[in-house]
Amino acid sequence: MNARLDMYANPTALKAWKHVIAAGKVIEEGSSVPAATLELVKIRASQINGCGYCVDMHTKDATVAGETPIRLHLVAVWREATVFTDAERAALELAEQGTRLADSAGGVTDEVWDNAAKHYDDGQLADLVSVIALINAFNRGNAIIRQPAGSYRPGQHG
């Protein structure tokens, strides 16, 4: 299977995606949200959006960062799993509602936002919102071009 389009071969697309990638790096390098939580959020949004490439990337990156296989296997069913902290659960629920905006006329509910705010300060909430928005952008781009999964190597993108 090959992608429909090589986004890095088009000068305009390459320039645009470099900015999106750079925005992600700003958050990853400057956030006080645990790196594991950021990866779990990216994995969950990618699962919802059906982006195999991003699921592949972020499970591998999380593994390199020390995440356990059992937690990675249970991200899709986090509500029924006992291996996530209350803070991680709040971030995962925020990621789900932030990813499924079209499923709810009101978007992210006050209840979900308030629960996340119990665990994260305003700066961390801004980081989570940004990560959720960015991973959704990556998911959509990769899904549109059918970027195949399986070949990602940790650290490959910089």
Q: What is the end-to-end distance?
A: 24 Å
Proportion of strand residues = under 5%
Query: In percent, how helical is the residue content?
Result: 55-70%
**Morphology call:** globular
The major pleated sheet works out as:
none
Spell out the helices and strands N to C.
Answer: HHHHHHH
Tally of DSSP helical segments: 7
Instruction: Give the number of DSSP strands.
Output: 0
- Taking pLDDT < 50 over at least 5 consecutive residues as the criterion, the unreliable ranges are none
In terms of structural class, how would the helical and strand content be classed? Answer: mainly alpha
Radius of gyration: 15 Å
Provide key terms for this protein.
mainly alpha; 158 residues; 7 helices
Q: Could you please describe the fold and organization of this structure?
A:
- It is a single chain.
- The protein is 65% helix and 0% strand.
- The protein starts with 10 loop residues before the first helix and ends in a 13-residue tail after the last helix.
- With 158 residues, it is an all-alpha fold.
- The protein contains 7 helices and no strands.
- The radius of gyration is 15 Å and the shape is globular.
- The mean pLDDT is 94.
